[in-house]
Amino acid sequence: MKIEIGNGIDFIGDIHACYDEFMILLEKLGYQKNANGLYAHPKGRKLVSLGDVMSRGPQSIQCMEFFYAHVEAGLAYMIDSNHGWKIARWLDGRKVQLRHGDENVEREFKDYEKQHGKKETNTLKEKLKNLLLHAPSHYIFTMDGEDQVVCAHAGIRDDYVGKENNKIKDFCRYGDVAGMDERGKPIRREWYKQHEGDLLIVWGHDPKPEPLIINNTINIDQGLVFGGKLTCYRYPENEFVFVKANKNYSGKIGADNPIQK
Ligand SMILES: [Mn+2]
Fold it and tell me: For the segment 47-102, what is each residue's pLDDT rounded down to a tens digit?
């Protein structure tokens, strides 16, 4: 799970099926289509998705196909996430309850099948299932072999870095969840307050109106699908690049909207 930083990394927060805004971001970052129709950076930078590329928003399939193709080509990386894991198991034919926007993915696949037929749909499902099932819980980015940055969808504890088991995978997908409140929302413990040392941890999952920077941790989920913005954090430049949402796709307003409250 170690990757050399090389010519630079562009960490991308939760896209949640907002493909149009993601394309605008890639252009802003200087990515260009290569001869194979894939987006590559002229300086050899790599894209890293913090997961939750699908669900809630309008174009889950496009977003997943993008990462399938770019991960295969070695142009991008994508880690595991809560929606990613749910959709992976659904694609694997397991019984899961599709909600919190996951039901949109099912609807998109029904439309896809009407247009492209069963065989093509099943081929696509198989590819995307493999991408999602095998996404690692976190990556460690190194410079000259030394650990510099870790990315994990919902965060990671210091003693979990570099290890992988079911408990760690769950932590990276959901964060440090202490149960549910009376509204059915997860009660999240602030794991980042315990982070110590120089290792930078980049995470998403928990939408904040602006990047939250605490103890060498950076949250870059700025609630794009909730009408916020899509964030890229560029390393080692330590710069943010944002694209505003075209609209609030989530249907959540007021106290139900995590970035409007
Ligand atoms: Mn998430």
Answer: 999 999 999 999 999 999 999 999 999 999 999 999 999 999 999 999 999 999 99
Residue 59 CA to ligand 1 center (angstroms) comes to 17
Q: How far is the CA of 82 from the centre of ligand 1 (A)?
A: 5
Distance (angstroms) between ligand 1 centre and the Cα of 83 equals 6
Specify the number of domains making up the chain. 1
Q: Which of 51, 11, 5, 2 is nearest to 29 (CA)?
A: 11
In order, the DSSP letters of 186-222 are EEE--GGGG--SS-EEEE-SS--SS-EEETTEEE-EE
Q: Which two tokens stand for residue 206?
A: 């928990």
Length of the chain in terms of residues written: 261
Please report, for the domain that includes residue 40, its CATH number: 3.60.21.10
pTM of the model: 0.96
- Residue 261 in any domain: the answer is no
Q: What is the pLDDT of residues 196-239, one digit of tens each?
A: 999 999 999 999 999 999 999 999 999 999 999 999 999 999 99
For residue 95, how far is its CA from the centre of ligand 1 (angstroms)?
A: 20
Residue with tokens 């493909």: 19
Ligand 1 centroid, distance to 171 Cα (angstroms): 11
Provide the domain limits for residue 105: 2-256
Measure 165 CA to ligand 1 centroid, in angstroms.
19
